[in-house]
Design goal:
25% helix; 97 residues; 4 strands; four-stranded antiparallel β-sheet
């Protein structure tokens, strides 16, 4: 099992949801109204007058064989909406209950 953490500008939520649905990834936890900024480009998303955008974030625990297709779709979306911002991070899940 792998944990996948995805952060993205909330304006592309429908596109992220579509990716998860198409890959049959049903289980996840989502946070809305997440503030942050990227390390190398793009504008901060702070929900403020100056930087009004906000992010959302998803954490999903998925089977390893779904990771590469998910990352491929996220990369494709990132190229399509490059100025909006989307990132995905993957790590091992050692145990669950």
């Amino acid at each position: 099992m792998k944990a996948v953490f995805i952060t993205y500008n909330q304006v592309i939520t429908d596109k992220v949801d579509e990716i998860l649905d198409n890959l049959l990834i049903r289980g996840y936890t989502q946070w809305v109204g997440v503030k942050g900024r990227g390390s190398n480009q793009g504008n901060p998303h702070m929900g403020s007058h100056t930087w009004p955008a906000l992010n959302s974030a998803i954490l999903s625990i998925i089977d390893e064989e779904k990771v590469d297709p998910l990352l491929l779709k996220i990369d494709e979306l990132n190229k399509e909406v490059e100025q909006q911002g989307i990132r995905a991070f993957v790590w091992d899940v050692e145990k669950t209950v």
